[in-house]
Amino acid sequence: MKRFFQTIKNIFSIEDLRVRILNTMGFLIIFRLGSYIVLPGIDPAALTGAPQEGILALLNTFLGGSFSRASIFALGIMPYISASIIVQLLTVAVPYFQKMQKEGDSGRKRLNQITRVLTILITGFQSYGYIRGTIPNEAIINPGFFFYFSAIAILIGGTMFCMWLGERITDKGIGNGISMLIMIGIVSRFPGSIIDEAVNNRGLSGGIIFVIELLALFAVVMGVILITQATRRIPIQYAKQVVGNKLYGGKRDFIPLKLNSAGVMPIIFAQALMFIPALVGGIWRDSEAGAYIGSTFSDFTSWQYNVVFGLLILLFTFFYTAITINSNDIADNLKRNGGFVPGVKPGKQTSEFIDTVLSRITLPGAIFLVIIAVMPAFAVIAGVGQNFAQFFGGTSLLILVGVVLDTLQQIESYLLMRHYEGMMKSGRVKGRSQFAAA
């Protein structure tokens, strides 16, 4: 306990780190306050409350309850994530966007502008589906063109403001701001979910079941941490060089390739796309096809939903790994610094070797990611309450573990940079961002 308080003291004794932590807390408080501001023209008393089942309940968990409250942040950061997915796909498939990506800062600025414009378009489409498909008609005080126009405009403004908050957290705070906003929404729902689960499991048998659920949750958390931290180390040997009368180099090192190099981003990307069919089904709920799509993809325990969800996770895991880890750059850096993989020629063969190893470990990592992502559906089928089951694995748990590890790694980096002891006595805290550094 003494070491814990000493670590807290060391953290707040570093001015830059203290300012970043306070900035992050301030931005997150603003985000949470905005989730309680109801859209103008809607009677809060007439709202039916949080969706109790299906994909809408999962979305409500990600947004910290703002979805069910019809707040100005009802769509949160999800449209921006969808726009980012589309732009990243275009940078892989379309030569014009590939060229733009390689233009440095100017190209990135243009891509960011395109992402923002696309975010506005996607938010406008999803806002109409949200108002038409999820808000009860009796909750709208004066339905009409002006209400729909103003509500859509406010929802677009709310999403853009959330995007701005995420960017400010990244620049002025700690860690990935977008993931941080999603995490705080999830954390805000956890205490109520675990209390509801405890209340629902009354009596001796219910208490035993609740304890078993907690133990299972602990085991799942440990499994997620192991998968997040697992690495495949590629050994590196640096050639010896004679400079003057001294011999330099000759040291051994390794390239740590993570089993899940993409982190939580494939889950976030796939989940953002899985919200679209439910919203589309809400818009055309009067038609037979719309009703089928809405009912099927609003139930995250249906096999259709889980099959599509799993395939999207597999796709985005390989895609995100490919765009974040460039085997050619790693091989070039090794060759330039006099390093080589024992038994492999420098240059092209080293790049091919790294790419082969990366492909082999990415597939099992993606499969583990899919298994964890669909576990809440099996938990619900096994009898766990839906609100608590969403923390039983799946997107919520992966985001929590990933963001917490990244944040702790950022804080530990500041501590070690200022010559303080790290946060862990047994070793360094490793975030998701530590990969493929040659």
Quick recap:
The protein is mainly alpha-helical and 438 residues long. Helix content is 67%, strand content 6%.
List keywords for this structure.
Preprotein translocase SecY subunit; disordered C terminus; mainly alpha; globular; 438 residues; 67% helix; two-stranded antiparallel sheet
Main β-sheet, in a few words?
3 strands, antiparallel
Return residue spans where pLDDT drops below 50 for at least 5 consecutive residues: 432-438
**Mean of all residue-level pLDDT scores:** 78
- Binned, the helix content reads 55-70%
Return the structural class.
mainly alpha
Order of helices and strands: HHHHHHHHHEEEEHHHHEHHH
Radius of gyration: 24 Å
CATH topology category name: Preprotein translocase SecY subunit
- Which strands sit side by side, in order, in the main sheet? 4-1-5
CATH homologous superfamily annotation: SecY subunit domain
**Individual helix count:** 16
The fraction of residues assigned to DSSP E strands is: 5-15%
Please report the distance between the alpha carbons of the first and last residues.
Answer: 37 Å
- Report the CATH C-level class: Mainly Alpha
Number of domains: 1
**Dominant shape:** globular
Q: Mind telling me which CATH architecture this is?
A: Orthogonal Bundle
The total of beta strands comes to: 5
Family: Belongs to the SecY/SEC61-alpha family.
Subcellular location: Cell membrane; Membrane
Protein name: Protein translocase subunit SecY
Membrane topology: Multi-pass membrane protein
